[in-house]
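Researcher: Next sequence.
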Amino acid sequence: MPAETHQQRDDVTAVEIVDLLVAVLASSTDLADVGSDTPLADLGIDSDLALFDLCDVVAEEYGERTLGEIDLDELWSARTIGALAAVFARLRDRAERDEQSTGLEDPA
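Model: Next structure:
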C-alpha cells in the first residue's frame, strides 16, 4: 500500500464528511432515510469499534494527515451522523492550526 506522505488534499468540510458517511452507512438502510440528523445507534453504530471503523473510512478517504489526531471524548460524544462529521471537521481545523503555528507543512 503506498504511503500517504505525499498526499495533499483541499480543505474537507463537514458536508463532505456527512456525504461520505451517509454513502457508507446507507447501505444498511434506505438512503432516503439517512441524513445528518440520523442517530448512529439507528444504523448499528453503537460501539467503540464501530466508531473506529468509521474513523478508518474517513481517514482512508481524506487522509490521516488531513484530519489530524482524533479526540476520543469528542468521538464518543457524537450521537448523529452530523455530530460525527462535525468532530472530523474540527479535527481538520485543529490540524491546520497546528500546522500553521509550528510552521510545519506536509511535503508535497
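Model: Residues 81-102 form the longest helix (22 residues). The chain has five helices and no strands.
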